């Protein structure tokens, strides 16, 4: 019957405890996202304000875009280094790594949002999501790390 108590071996609480904790799985998202951002930033070098002005972007904003993309990608990688075993046990490094990861994610969201509004100008959100998976993925990945930071790997499982 459905109302009977499940044996302890099948208990949901025990089930979650038995699953392996793959705390470095964020690397599978972090590295490709960082590489894409670094690649996008490096493709804009050498810095030329005329390129940005051709898209209607002021020189100062274009400078922040060029350097921000590279810095955010590098920051995502550096922030990920402190999630490695033994390094994350040093409290100050764990906090700094989390802040770097969150800041890099926020910068990614800002840059991609600027690209969407000033360059792509999609007719609707649905059209954008359905047709421009690369920028949407970059934005969603930046949002994930901006909101989540390194928290997922900083919290230890309690038995």
**Topology pattern, helix = H, strand = E:** HHHHHHHH
SS field, number of helical segments: 8
Gyration radius over CA = 20 Å
Structural class based on helices, strands and sheet pairing: mainly alpha
Work out the number of β strands.
0
What proportion of the residues form beta strands (DSSP E)?
under 5%
Main beta sheet strand tally, sense and closure: none
User: Rough shape?
Assistant: globular
Separation, N- and C-terminal Cα atoms: 30 Å
What is the average of the pLDDT values?
86
Portion of residues within helices: 55-70%
Q: Which spans of ≥5 residues are poorly predicted at pLDDT below 50?
A: none
Walkthrough of the structure:
The chain is built from eight helices and no strands. The chain has 159 residues and is mainly alpha-helical. The protein has helices at residues 12-18, 27-42, 49-54, 59-81, 91-120, 125-131, 133-148, 151-154. The radius of gyration is 20 Å and the shape is globular. The longest helix is centred in the middle third of the chain and has 30 residues, at 91-120.
């Amino acid at each position: 019957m459905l109302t009977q108590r499940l044996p302890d071996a099948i208990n949901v609480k025990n089930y979650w405890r038995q699953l392996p904790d793959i705390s470095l799985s964020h690397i599978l998202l972090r590295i490709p996202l960082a590489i894409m951002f670094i690649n996008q930033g490096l493709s804009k070098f050498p810095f030329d304000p005329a390129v940005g002005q051709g898209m209607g972007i002021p020189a100062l904003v274009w400078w922040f875009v060029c350097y921000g993309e590279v810095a955010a990608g590098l920051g995502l990688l550096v922030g990920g280094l402190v999630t490695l075993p033994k390094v994350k046990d040093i409290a100050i490094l764990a906090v700094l790594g989390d802040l770097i990861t969150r800041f890099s994610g926020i910068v990614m969201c800002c840059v991609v949002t600027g690209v969407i509004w000033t360059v792509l100008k999609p007719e609707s959100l649905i059209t954008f999501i359905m047709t421009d998976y690369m920028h949407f993925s970059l934005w969603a990945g930046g949002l994930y790390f901006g909101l989540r930071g390194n928290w997922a790997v900083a919290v230890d499982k309690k038995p």
